[in-house]
TrEMBL record:
Domain called Solute-binding protein family 3/N-terminal: residue spans: 29-263
Record has DNA repair as a keyword: no
Signal peptide: 1-24
InterPro entries (UniProt xref): Solute-binding_3/MltF_N
Assigned keywords, A-Z: Signal
Protein name: Amino acid ABC transporter substrate-binding protein (PAAT family)
Coiled coil: none
C-alpha cells in the first residue's frame, strides 16, 4: 500500500523539479549608447564596444536573467529611464544632481579620461591654462545628451559666455571642428582618438582641415550601469539584478578580466 502511494508522489516531485528547472529566466532589456565608440556602439547590425563586451560576459553569468542589449541614441535612452519605461542603461557617469532619476548606480565598470580637444589655432591664440575660465567666448561642440565639463563650465554655458552646439555623434562634432565650425570639444580621450583614426582612414581629414590637439585633461570619469528610479515599481527584480551584477563586476575587476577585455578591444 505504501509503495503504491510513493510512485505518484515521486512522479509529482520529478514533475515539480522539471517545471522549476525549465522555468523561463526573467527577460531584461538594457539600453546602450549606439554612438560612443570604442566603448558602446552599433556596427554592422551588431552591438559592439568595450562596455558591451564586459556586460555581455557579465550577463551570461546571471542565470536567472536573459538580457537583451538594445543600442539606441543616448538622448532616447535617457528619456526612457527618466520616464520609468526603461530598466537600465550604460554607460552614464555619476551625475546625481543633474539626473536624479538615474538611481541606483552599479559598481563602477570602467575609468574614462575626459579631455578638452581644441583647434590648434585656438590653443596657440589662447594658451589656455585654467578651465573653464580661459575658454570664455569659444564655441564648444557636444554630443547630444552628454553632460561633461562640470558645474562651472555649464554655468558659463547657461550665462552665454560659452556657446554650445550639439550633434548626434563624436564623428559629426569632429567634422565640424575640422571645418572650423567649432572651437573645442569635451569628451573621452579614447573616444576622440578612435574616431579621428576613422575619419583619417575615410579621407575626411584634408590638407586644409583644421588641426586638432588636446588642450587639457579634466577628470577621470567612471562609467556605470544606471537604473531607472521612476521605474523601480515596474521592475520589482531590480534589487536582485543589481546585487548579482555588482558581485560579478567586482569579481571581474579582481581577476583582471576587465583589464583583459579592454586590451582585447583596443589592441593593447
Amino acid at each position: 500500500m505504501l509503495g503504491k502511494k510513493l510512485v505518484p508522489l515521486a512522479a509529482l516531485v520529478a514533475l515539480m523539479s522539471s517545471v522549476s528547472l525549465t522555468q523561463a529566466a526573467q527577460q531584461v532589456t538594457i539600453y546602450g549608447d549606439n554612438a560612443y565608440p570604442p566603448y558602446s556602439y552599433k556596427e554592422g547590425g551588431e552591438e559592439r564596444g568595450i562596455y558591451t563586451a564586459i556586460l555581455k560576459e557579465a550577463f551570461a553569468k546571471m542565470g536567472d536573467y536573459e538580457v537583451t542589449i538594445e543600442m539606441v541614441p543616448w538622448k532616447r535612452a535617457l528619456s526612457s529611464i527618466e520616464k520609468g519605461d526603461g530598466f537600465a542603461l550604460y554607460p552614464p557617469y555619476h551625475r546625481p544632481s543633474l539626473r536624479p532619476w538615474i538611481t541606483p548606480y552599479s559598481e563602477p565598470i570602467l575609468d574614462e579620461t575626459t579631455v578638452v580637444y581644441c583647434r590648434e589655432a585656438v590653443i596657440a591664440e589662447r594658451a589656455p591654462k585654467s578651465f573653464p575660465d580661459d575658454y570664455k567666448g569659444l564655441v564648444f561642440v557636444n554630443n547630444t545628451g552628454y553632460a561633461s565639463g562640470g558645474d562651472a563650465f555649464m554655468a558659463l554655458v547657461e550665462a552665454g559666455e560659452i556657446k554650445m552646439q550639439e550633434a548626434k555623434s563624436t564623428q559629426l562634432n569632429l567634422k565640424k571642428m575640422l571645418l572650423g565650425r567649432g572651437d573645442c570639444f569635451i569628451n573621452d580621450r579614447l573616444n576622440i582618438l578612435s574616431e579621428m583614426k576613422k575619419l583619417e582612414a575615410a579621407g575626411e581629414v584634408k590638407a586644409d582641415s583644421e588641426k586638432l590637439a588636446e588642450a587639457a585633461t579634466l577628470t577621470v570619469e567612471k562609467g556605470y550601469l544606471g537604473f531607472s528610479g521612476p521605474g523601480a515599481a515596474n521592475f520589482p527584480f531590480m534589487g536582485d539584478f543589481l546585487a548579482k551584477f555588482n558581485a560579478i563586476i567586482k569579481e571581474m575587476h579582481a581577476s583582471g578580466r576587465i583589464d583583459a577585455i579592454i586590451a582585447e578591444q583596443t589592441g593593447g
